[in-house]
Amino acid sequence: MANMTLFTDQDPESVYPSQDLIWGKFEQCFLALWGLVTYAPVFRDYYYQGLAQFYTDNVMYMEVRALLPEIYELDGSTHDTAWTLKTYQDITRQFTAEYPEFFGVRVIFTIHRGVNASKMARAVEEAMKLQRDFPDIMAGFDLVGREDSGRPLWYFRDALSLPAERGVTLPYFFHAGETDLEGTEVDQNLLDALLLNTSRIGHGFALLRHPVAKDLSRKRGVAVEVCPISNQVMKLVKDLRNHPAATLMSENHPLVISSDDPGMFGSSGLSYDFYEAFVGFGGMRSNLGSLKELAINSIRYSSLNPKQQEKALALWQRRWDNFVSENAF
């Protein structure tokens, strides 16, 4: 477990004194897990158990960032990204058949931001093909990995412009602004993400330092995916009362609460992050309405089409009404 998570029984401030050290450990954990979860039978079970854990936490719909890795069998054969995405689709259908109150999953195909321009172009080409072949489950495309040490979005501008040049719709959900390095190339990712018409902004921690980007994202209804525990664990902020999202929340900026990598952090599902957002961002003014608005935002700013959103909101409303009546607020 010590090799596969960031959780420690020691003082975390001593074990992880800097962002560089904790990011190094974080990426080592992914490498340790890689060969285990990319074995076909384990991959299927791993994904199913992930769905079960979120469902137990009362999550009814998910949008998952996935690298869509090459999956292997014990005879040495491997499966391509289309097989991997179809497996996500098949297991999601199996899970929703078993648990009808679970609304489903959509996948955001990702690639590590450390690749070169030609590899990024190939990934965007593949994403366009997957979007065409799997429109029900494929939500869009993103870059993952540490922004501070990865290449900025502008470096990949030619590859990321391919869909628009070809008249193809490929929604983007860019990680942008997960940094406290003000004034660097990476710090410009927020503006570039908006220029490239991102549907949401992953993390957006640096958004307050970019008033133009903040105003633009608000006017366009581009929600910030806030990951409270992740930002705290990865040492962007120590006290969540000082998190930029507290200001964004007070300004009614579009926000959704996300859990990033709960398994790595020793948490599960989404409740831990909702709790931290509730007490850390809203402070003494947080109330039941705060939770309700944040929950609705998860559907309002999802990649579901308007008809699907309407259906999901109706399902959510029934469960919300039961939650309120059962807890006698």
UniProtKB/TrEMBL annotation:
<comment type="similarity">
    <text>Belongs to the metallo-dependent hydrolases superfamily. Adenosine and AMP deaminases family. ADGF subfamily.</text>
</comment>
<dbReference type="GO" id="GO:0004000">
    <property type="term" value="F:adenosine deaminase activity"/>
</dbReference>
<dbReference type="Pfam" id="PF00962">
    <property type="entry name" value="A_deaminase"/>
</dbReference>
<protein>
    <recommendedName>
        <fullName>adenosine deaminase</fullName>
        <ecNumber>3.5.4.4</ecNumber>
    </recommendedName>
</protein>
<dbReference type="InterPro" id="IPR032466">
    <property type="entry name" value="Metal_Hydrolase"/>
</dbReference>
<dbReference type="GO" id="GO:0046872">
    <property type="term" value="F:metal ion binding"/>
</dbReference>
<keyword id="KW-0479">Metal-binding</keyword>
<feature type="domain" description="Adenosine deaminase">
    <location>
        <begin position="24"/>
        <end position="311"/>
    </location>
</feature>
<dbReference type="GO" id="GO:0046103">
    <property type="term" value="P:inosine biosynthetic process"/>
</dbReference>
<dbReference type="InterPro" id="IPR001365">
    <property type="entry name" value="A_deaminase_dom"/>
</dbReference>
<dbReference type="InterPro" id="IPR006330">
    <property type="entry name" value="Ado/ade_deaminase"/>
</dbReference>
<keyword id="KW-0378">Hydrolase</keyword>
<dbReference type="GO" id="GO:0005615">
    <property type="term" value="C:extracellular space"/>
</dbReference>
<keyword id="KW-0732">Signal</keyword>
<keyword id="KW-0964">Secreted</keyword>
<dbReference type="InterPro" id="IPR006331">
    <property type="entry name" value="ADGF"/>
</dbReference>
<dbReference type="GO" id="GO:0006154">
    <property type="term" value="P:adenosine catabolic process"/>
</dbReference>
